Amino acid sequence: MADTSVKRRNEKVGEVVSTKMAKTIVVEVTRRVPHPLYKRIVTRRKKFYAHDEAGSARLGDVVRIVESRPLSRLKRWTLAEVVRRAADTSVALQGDEQ
Fold first, then answer.
1. CB 27 within 8 A of CB 65
2. What total of structural domains would you count in the chain?
3. Does residue 80 form part of some domain?
4. Domain containing residue 56
5. Which of 14, 17, 51, 94 has the greatest number of C-beta atoms within 10 Å?
6. Each residue's pLDDT tens digit, 25-73
7. Model confidence at 15, in pLDDT bands (50, 70, 90)?
8. Does some domain include residue 3?
9. What pTM was computed for the model?
10. Mean pLDDT, rounded, of the chain
11. 27 neighbors 81 (Cβ within 8 angstroms)
């Protein structure tokens, strides 16, 4: 009997906080969980190193990453898609205004 079940890869959604490495992005995943004793909602953050072959992710983008085989000492995730682009904060140069 063949195993027809499909393995689901673990995936997370987070914000890109660094793009300074070659083909690597750092994604910060935020989750809100109740405190174990006081039951107050607290924010937990964790950073994941993800492989970005095309270099398509930019700082501030919201991205989806999926688990993959180990690619380096810290990299175990791969960029799946850019969910939402960050607002462009660069100042556009105005023509000949003086």
1. yes
2. 1
3. yes
4. 11-84
5. 14
6. 999 999 999 999 999 999 999 999 999 999 999 999 999 999 999 999 9
7. very high
8. no
9. 0.81
10. 90
11. no
Q: What is the CATH number of the domain that holds 57?
A: 2.40.50.140
Residue 51: burial class (beta carbons within 10 Å; 0-12, 13-18, 19+)? middle
User: What does the DSSP 8-state code read for residue 94?
Assistant: P
Q: Is residue 44 part of a domain?
A: yes
Tokens (6 digits) for 80: 């799946």
Structure tokens at 58: 């930019």
Alpha carbons 45 and 26: distance in angstroms, whole number: 12
Q: Closest Cα partner for 59 from 95, 87, 30, 96? A: 87
- Most confident range (mean pLDDT) of 5-9, 47-51, 91-95 is 47-51
